[in-house]
Amino acid sequence: MNRKKMMLLFSLFLLLAACSSNEKDDSASESQDEKASSKMDASFSENKEPEEVVEKEGVTDERKVIHQAQLELKVKNLEKAQMKIENKVDEYGGYVVESNVYREDEELVEGTITVRIPEARFQDFLADSEGEASEVVGRNVTGQDVTEQYVDLKARLKSKRAVEERLLAFMQDAKKTEDLLKISSDLAVVQEEIEQLTGQMKYLENQTSYSTVTITFIQDRIVVPGLDNKELNTWERTKKQLATSANLLLKAGSGIIVFIIGNLPILIILGGAGAVVHWALKRRGKR
Protein backbone atom coordinates (compact mmCIF):
# COMPACT_ATOMS: atom_id res chain seq x y z
CA MET A 1 0.00 0.00 0.00
CA ASN A 2 2.74 2.37 0.89
CA ARG A 3 4.48 1.48 -2.32
CA LYS A 4 1.43 2.45 -4.42
CA LYS A 5 1.11 5.78 -2.65
CA MET A 6 4.76 6.54 -3.33
CA MET A 7 4.32 5.82 -7.06
CA LEU A 8 1.23 8.07 -7.25
CA LEU A 9 2.99 10.98 -5.54
CA PHE A 10 5.97 10.63 -7.90
CA SER A 11 3.71 10.75 -10.98
CA LEU A 12 1.97 13.91 -9.72
CA PHE A 13 5.35 15.56 -9.15
CA LEU A 14 6.45 14.82 -12.73
CA LEU A 15 3.18 16.21 -14.13
CA LEU A 16 3.52 19.48 -12.19
CA ALA A 17 7.13 19.90 -13.34
CA ALA A 18 6.15 19.50 -17.00
CA CYS A 19 3.31 22.07 -16.69
CA SER A 20 5.59 24.65 -15.09
CA SER A 21 8.15 24.16 -17.89
CA ASN A 22 5.50 24.77 -20.59
CA GLU A 23 4.35 27.97 -18.87
CA LYS A 24 7.92 29.27 -18.82
CA ASP A 25 8.36 28.57 -22.56
CA ASP A 26 5.10 30.36 -23.40
CA SER A 27 6.01 33.41 -21.36
CA ALA A 28 9.46 33.51 -22.96
CA SER A 29 8.00 33.36 -26.47
CA GLU A 30 5.49 36.10 -25.65
CA SER A 31 8.25 38.35 -24.30
CA GLN A 32 10.27 37.78 -27.50
CA ASP A 33 7.27 38.71 -29.67
CA GLU A 34 6.72 41.86 -27.62
CA LYS A 35 10.37 42.81 -27.99
CA ALA A 36 10.24 42.28 -31.79
CA SER A 37 7.05 44.31 -32.08
CA SER A 38 8.48 47.16 -30.01
CA LYS A 39 11.62 47.08 -32.12
CA MET A 40 9.54 47.36 -35.33
CA ASP A 41 7.48 50.22 -33.86
CA ALA A 42 10.70 52.03 -33.00
CA SER A 43 11.88 51.65 -36.58
CA PHE A 44 8.52 53.04 -37.82
CA SER A 45 8.88 56.10 -35.62
CA GLU A 46 12.39 56.69 -36.95
CA ASN A 47 11.18 56.42 -40.57
CA LYS A 48 8.38 58.90 -39.96
CA GLU A 49 10.77 61.73 -39.07
CA PRO A 50 10.04 64.72 -41.35
CA GLU A 51 13.68 65.26 -42.25
CA GLU A 52 16.41 62.66 -42.14
CA VAL A 53 20.02 63.37 -41.31
CA VAL A 54 21.87 63.33 -44.64
CA GLU A 55 25.60 62.91 -44.81
CA LYS A 56 26.80 64.71 -47.93
CA GLU A 57 29.50 63.16 -50.02
CA GLY A 58 32.48 65.14 -51.13
CA VAL A 59 31.96 67.72 -53.86
CA THR A 60 32.02 66.07 -57.28
CA ASP A 61 35.08 66.62 -59.44
CA GLU A 62 32.93 67.72 -62.39
CA ARG A 63 31.29 71.11 -61.91
CA LYS A 64 27.63 71.40 -62.87
CA VAL A 65 27.09 74.79 -64.60
CA ILE A 66 24.05 75.92 -66.59
CA HIS A 67 25.27 78.14 -69.46
CA GLN A 68 23.09 80.52 -71.46
CA ALA A 69 24.05 83.01 -74.21
CA GLN A 70 22.32 85.77 -76.20
CA LEU A 71 23.92 87.04 -79.42
CA GLU A 72 22.79 89.93 -81.64
CA LEU A 73 24.42 89.75 -85.07
CA LYS A 74 24.31 91.85 -88.24
CA VAL A 75 24.47 89.66 -91.35
CA LYS A 76 24.50 90.41 -95.09
CA ASN A 77 22.14 87.57 -95.96
CA LEU A 78 19.84 86.31 -93.20
CA GLU A 79 18.76 83.07 -94.90
CA LYS A 80 22.31 81.94 -95.65
CA ALA A 81 23.56 82.82 -92.17
CA GLN A 82 20.66 80.98 -90.51
CA MET A 83 21.22 77.90 -92.68
CA LYS A 84 24.92 77.79 -91.74
CA ILE A 85 24.07 78.11 -88.04
CA GLU A 86 21.58 75.22 -88.28
CA ASN A 87 24.21 73.06 -90.02
CA LYS A 88 26.65 73.79 -87.18
CA VAL A 89 24.00 72.79 -84.64
CA ASP A 90 23.58 69.40 -86.37
CA GLU A 91 27.35 68.98 -86.65
CA TYR A 92 27.84 69.54 -82.89
CA GLY A 93 24.99 67.19 -81.91
CA GLY A 94 22.56 69.88 -80.76
CA TYR A 95 19.01 70.70 -81.77
CA VAL A 96 16.89 73.72 -82.71
CA VAL A 97 14.25 74.76 -80.14
CA GLU A 98 12.68 77.69 -82.05
CA SER A 99 13.27 79.64 -85.27
CA ASN A 100 11.46 82.80 -86.52
CA VAL A 101 11.88 85.37 -89.33
CA TYR A 102 10.26 88.84 -89.32
CA ARG A 103 10.03 90.83 -92.57
CA GLU A 104 8.58 94.34 -92.24
CA ASP A 105 9.69 95.52 -95.70
CA GLU A 106 12.41 94.89 -98.27
CA GLU A 107 14.94 96.94 -96.32
CA LEU A 108 14.33 95.52 -92.81
CA VAL A 109 14.49 91.75 -92.22
CA GLU A 110 15.09 90.24 -88.75
CA GLY A 111 15.12 86.71 -87.36
CA THR A 112 15.74 84.76 -84.14
CA ILE A 113 16.84 81.19 -83.49
CA THR A 114 17.12 79.35 -80.15
CA VAL A 115 19.27 76.20 -80.00
CA ARG A 116 20.61 73.69 -77.43
CA ILE A 117 24.29 72.83 -77.80
CA PRO A 118 26.31 70.18 -75.90
CA GLU A 119 28.24 71.85 -73.09
CA ALA A 120 31.58 70.66 -74.48
CA ARG A 121 31.01 72.55 -77.77
CA PHE A 122 29.46 75.70 -76.26
CA GLN A 123 32.42 78.05 -76.79
CA ASP A 124 33.15 76.63 -80.26
CA PHE A 125 29.57 77.26 -81.35
CA LEU A 126 29.68 80.88 -80.09
CA ALA A 127 32.87 81.52 -82.07
CA ASP A 128 31.38 79.96 -85.23
CA SER A 129 28.17 82.00 -84.90
CA GLU A 130 30.05 85.28 -84.48
CA GLY A 131 32.16 84.37 -87.51
CA GLU A 132 29.04 84.45 -89.72
CA ALA A 133 28.27 88.08 -88.75
CA SER A 134 29.41 91.24 -90.46
CA GLU A 135 29.14 92.93 -87.04
CA VAL A 136 28.53 91.62 -83.50
CA VAL A 137 26.04 94.09 -82.03
CA GLY A 138 25.57 92.38 -78.64
CA ARG A 139 26.93 89.40 -76.65
CA ASN A 140 25.73 88.18 -73.24
CA VAL A 141 26.90 84.92 -71.63
CA THR A 142 25.75 83.74 -68.18
CA GLY A 143 26.55 80.67 -66.06
CA GLN A 144 24.76 79.28 -62.98
CA ASP A 145 26.72 76.84 -60.78
CA VAL A 146 24.38 74.11 -59.45
CA THR A 147 27.07 71.66 -58.28
CA GLU A 148 26.18 71.96 -54.58
CA GLN A 149 22.48 71.56 -55.31
CA TYR A 150 23.15 68.43 -57.39
CA VAL A 151 25.38 66.88 -54.68
CA ASP A 152 22.72 67.57 -52.05
CA LEU A 153 20.03 65.86 -54.16
CA LYS A 154 22.33 62.88 -54.77
CA ALA A 155 23.01 62.42 -51.03
CA ARG A 156 19.33 62.70 -50.15
CA LEU A 157 18.44 60.17 -52.84
CA LYS A 158 21.00 57.71 -51.45
CA SER A 159 19.55 58.09 -47.96
CA LYS A 160 15.97 57.58 -49.19
CA ARG A 161 16.97 54.43 -51.07
CA ALA A 162 18.50 53.02 -47.87
CA VAL A 163 15.23 53.70 -46.04
CA GLU A 164 13.33 52.00 -48.88
CA GLU A 165 15.49 48.86 -48.57
CA ARG A 166 14.93 48.79 -44.78
CA LEU A 167 11.16 49.05 -45.20
CA LEU A 168 11.12 46.27 -47.80
CA ALA A 169 13.05 44.02 -45.39
CA PHE A 170 10.55 44.79 -42.58
CA MET A 171 7.67 43.99 -44.93
CA GLN A 172 9.06 40.50 -45.55
CA ASP A 173 9.42 39.83 -41.79
CA ALA A 174 6.08 41.35 -40.74
CA LYS A 175 3.33 38.90 -39.74
CA LYS A 176 0.60 41.20 -38.41
CA THR A 177 -1.79 43.08 -40.72
CA GLU A 178 -1.25 46.24 -38.70
CA ASP A 179 2.48 46.13 -39.32
CA LEU A 180 2.02 45.52 -43.05
CA LEU A 181 -0.30 48.54 -43.35
CA LYS A 182 2.20 50.76 -41.51
CA ILE A 183 5.09 49.62 -43.67
CA SER A 184 3.10 50.05 -46.91
CA SER A 185 2.14 53.63 -45.98
CA ASP A 186 5.72 54.60 -45.09
CA LEU A 187 7.05 52.88 -48.21
CA ALA A 188 4.67 54.82 -50.49
CA VAL A 189 5.82 58.15 -48.99
CA VAL A 190 9.50 57.26 -49.38
CA GLN A 191 9.07 56.08 -52.98
CA GLU A 192 7.26 59.31 -53.90
CA GLU A 193 10.15 61.33 -52.46
CA ILE A 194 12.61 59.18 -54.44
CA GLU A 195 10.72 59.96 -57.67
CA GLN A 196 10.79 63.69 -56.94
CA LEU A 197 14.52 63.69 -56.19
CA THR A 198 15.23 61.63 -59.32
CA GLY A 199 13.24 64.09 -61.47
CA GLN A 200 15.11 67.10 -60.06
CA MET A 201 18.46 65.43 -60.70
CA LYS A 202 17.52 64.56 -64.30
CA TYR A 203 16.45 68.18 -64.90
CA LEU A 204 19.78 69.53 -63.63
CA GLU A 205 21.68 66.94 -65.69
CA ASN A 206 19.82 68.00 -68.84
CA GLN A 207 20.34 71.72 -68.18
CA THR A 208 24.06 71.30 -67.53
CA SER A 209 24.66 68.84 -70.40
CA TYR A 210 23.22 71.23 -73.01
CA SER A 211 23.68 75.02 -73.16
CA THR A 212 20.99 77.35 -74.50
CA VAL A 213 21.96 79.93 -77.17
CA THR A 214 19.55 82.55 -78.58
CA ILE A 215 20.72 84.43 -81.69
CA THR A 216 19.03 87.53 -83.15
CA PHE A 217 19.86 88.26 -86.81
CA ILE A 218 19.60 91.72 -88.39
CA GLN A 219 19.98 91.77 -92.17
CA ASP A 220 22.43 94.54 -93.11
CA ARG A 221 21.48 95.08 -96.77
CA ILE A 222 20.69 98.18 -98.90
CA VAL A 223 17.94 97.55 -101.43
CA VAL A 224 18.29 99.51 -104.73
CA PRO A 225 14.87 100.22 -106.25
CA GLY A 226 14.43 98.90 -109.81
CA LEU A 227 13.38 100.89 -112.92
CA ASP A 228 9.65 101.15 -113.50
CA ASN A 229 8.78 100.99 -117.22
CA LYS A 230 5.39 102.48 -116.55
CA GLU A 231 6.99 105.69 -115.27
CA LEU A 232 9.10 105.99 -118.49
CA ASN A 233 6.19 106.01 -121.06
CA THR A 234 6.53 109.66 -122.26
CA TRP A 235 3.80 109.67 -124.93
CA GLU A 236 1.16 108.29 -122.60
CA ARG A 237 2.16 110.74 -119.91
CA THR A 238 2.00 113.65 -122.46
CA LYS A 239 -1.49 112.70 -123.61
CA LYS A 240 -2.59 112.40 -120.05
CA GLN A 241 -1.21 115.84 -119.16
CA LEU A 242 -2.82 117.41 -122.28
CA ALA A 243 -6.19 115.96 -121.40
CA THR A 244 -5.80 117.23 -117.85
CA SER A 245 -4.99 120.78 -119.07
CA ALA A 246 -7.93 120.79 -121.53
CA ASN A 247 -10.26 119.67 -118.79
CA LEU A 248 -9.03 122.50 -116.58
CA LEU A 249 -9.65 125.08 -119.36
CA LEU A 250 -13.10 123.71 -120.11
CA LYS A 251 -13.96 123.74 -116.42
CA ALA A 252 -12.77 127.38 -116.13
CA GLY A 253 -14.75 128.52 -119.23
CA SER A 254 -17.82 126.64 -118.08
CA GLY A 255 -17.53 128.29 -114.71
CA ILE A 256 -17.33 131.79 -116.24
CA ILE A 257 -20.37 131.22 -118.47
CA VAL A 258 -22.38 129.87 -115.57
CA PHE A 259 -21.33 132.82 -113.42
CA ILE A 260 -22.33 135.45 -116.04
CA ILE A 261 -25.68 133.92 -116.99
CA GLY A 262 -26.56 132.99 -113.46
CA ASN A 263 -25.81 136.49 -112.14
CA LEU A 264 -27.15 138.44 -115.20
CA PRO A 265 -29.85 140.46 -113.29
CA ILE A 266 -27.34 141.60 -110.73
CA LEU A 267 -24.83 142.48 -113.44
CA ILE A 268 -27.47 144.59 -115.33
CA ILE A 269 -28.32 146.54 -112.19
CA LEU A 270 -24.66 147.07 -111.38
CA GLY A 271 -23.95 148.11 -115.00
CA GLY A 272 -26.83 150.63 -115.01
CA ALA A 273 -25.70 152.10 -111.71
CA GLY A 274 -22.16 152.36 -113.04
CA ALA A 275 -23.37 154.12 -116.20
CA VAL A 276 -25.35 156.69 -114.17
CA VAL A 277 -22.32 157.38 -111.96
CA HIS A 278 -20.11 157.74 -115.04
CA TRP A 279 -22.56 160.15 -116.70
CA ALA A 280 -22.82 162.27 -113.53
CA LEU A 281 -19.06 162.48 -113.18
CA LYS A 282 -18.63 163.37 -116.81
CA ARG A 283 -21.22 166.20 -116.60
CA ARG A 284 -19.61 167.61 -113.50
CA GLY A 285 -16.28 167.62 -115.27
CA LYS A 286 -17.71 169.71 -118.11
CA ARG A 287 -19.02 172.36 -115.71
Structure description:
With 287 residues, the protein is an alpha+beta fold. It has a domain at 66-225. 63% of the residues lie in helices and 18% in strands. The protein has 7 helices and 5 strands; from the N terminus they run H-E-H-E-E-H-E-H-H-E-H-H. A 5-stranded mixed β-sheet has the order 2-3-5-1-4. Strand 2 and strand 3 (109-118) form a beta hairpin. Helix 1 packs parallel to helix 5 (177-209) and helix 4 (147-173) runs antiparallel to helix 5 (177-209).
Summarize the structure.
With 287 residues, the protein is α+β, with helices and mostly antiparallel strands.
Task: Throw out a few tags for this protein.
287 residues, alpha+beta, 5-stranded mixed beta sheet, 7 helices, elongated
Q: How are the SSEs ordered, and which strands pair?
A:
Blueprint: H1 2-47, E1 65-75, H2 78-91, E2 95-103, E3 109-118, H3 122-131, E4 135-145, H4 147-173, H5 177-209, E5 210-219, H6 234-262, H7 264-286
Parallel strand pairs: 1-5
Antiparallel strand pairs: 1-4, 2-3, 3-5
Helix pairs in contact: 1-5, 4-5
Spell the H/E element sequence.
HEHEEHEHHEHH
The major beta sheet can be summarized as:
5 strands, mixed
Shape: elongated
Cα gyration radius (Å)? 52 Å
> Which regions are unreliable across 5 or more consecutive residues at pLDDT < 50?
15-40, 42-59
Strand count: 5
Q: How many helices does DSSP assign? A: 7
In which range does the helix fraction lie? 55-70%
Overall pLDDT: 77
Strands of the widest sheet, in order across it, are 2-3-5-1-4
Strand content: 15-25%
Terminus-to-terminus distance: 208 Å
Q: How would you classify the helix and strand content by structural class? A: alpha+beta
